[in-house]
Amino acid sequence: MWMDKRYAYVVKVLLLLVSLALLRQPAPVSAAEIHGRSSTQFIWYNDSLDGGNQKSLSEYLQVTMTGLDSAGKLSIQGYGRAVYDVKNGGEVADRIYYLYADYKNLLDRADVRIGRQFVNFSAGSSLMDGVQVDVKNVGPVGFTLAGGRDISFGESDTLTSHASAAGFSAYLAGYKNTELDISYFRKYDYTNISADTIGANFTQYLLDSVKLYANARYDLTAEATSEALAGVKYFPFLDLMLSAEYYESYPTFDSTSIYSVFAVDKYKERAFTGEYTIISWLDLSASYYHELYGEDSRAGVYELGFKVRPGISTTVSLYRDGRRGYYGELDGYKISVEYSKFGKWKMAAGYDHDVYERDNSTGEETAKKYWVSGKYIFAKNMSSSFRVEDNVNITYSKDMRGKVAFDYEF
User: Fold this and answer.
1) Strands, E, within 207-328: which ranges?
2) What is the reported pLDDT for 10?
3) Is the pTM of this model over 0.70?
């Protein structure tokens, strides 16, 4: 845990620097600059396990430090959270999501990141304490390499200190309408290989009106395609978008996980969607999903909706959705209204209503949600917002939950 203690120390230093930057008197401008965002949130919700209403106070802080060198290539990025359990008390639980130094254009050939960061390849992803190097400007192909300790969060801290991950990708560079990368990703649990995958991602733009895209991931340990997606988006004109997708997934787990011994079924999905702005104040949308679970279990899901803007400050949305087939049936709708002419206030409210049947023996059940939200803008870089909702269903006759937040950008 020594690594997390060092990260916590660095974050405290960053917090001190931010405080000094905000409170200092006018002075000659320094080359170094600190920017970021602070979000203070009070959250309450019903916890059925505890049998009572939970309350927590959280502080989210994102910080960027630039101008650390004369060339402007070096920056430090950080993002973390501190949470206090208002109901039960105790210590403040902190968590570092990322904190790394980023150096651009090293020798005009590479971007280098060192520290805790989220690394994403088409073959897999990891939140890691490590290094990522993006090699570029070497021709039509670029390369990205990354490796370090693999981070898994528990309720209050990281779960493991013995897991690691590494990845590599090669991608096309300098092609305006074509994107392609091929990657390899591996994870270790101690010295045992827990995940071993290869992946690819492809995007092609045609005639300024068609977008083709596909990605796939193959699990070398399970010897199976764990995920595949192929789709097309068509824009015949500016106000109309049509899309069709095919997606399939086969759940695979780390080889060191107990879940790897369980049998699973492949999931397949065909999706068709359309969005059309008929006139400036009316949008229509429709979607249909054909779902296949295993070999014989099927379901059809649809959603129809429209948005109406009767005035420049008002938007009314209504959506109707339904489901037939495995597992159970559903009929529902949701309606919402947004209004932004209360001075510095922006307000919204909505109602969701679903009637569903999981099994013939249980009969129909109903779930309802009532919600209201608002945002008050104090200044360009300062605002406060809230959302309160009540859920009524078979589990709760009253389930109040909500969030109040104060956001500040500096």
Assistant:
1) 210-219, 224-237, 240-249, 267-279, 282-293, 297-311, 314-325
2) 47
3) yes
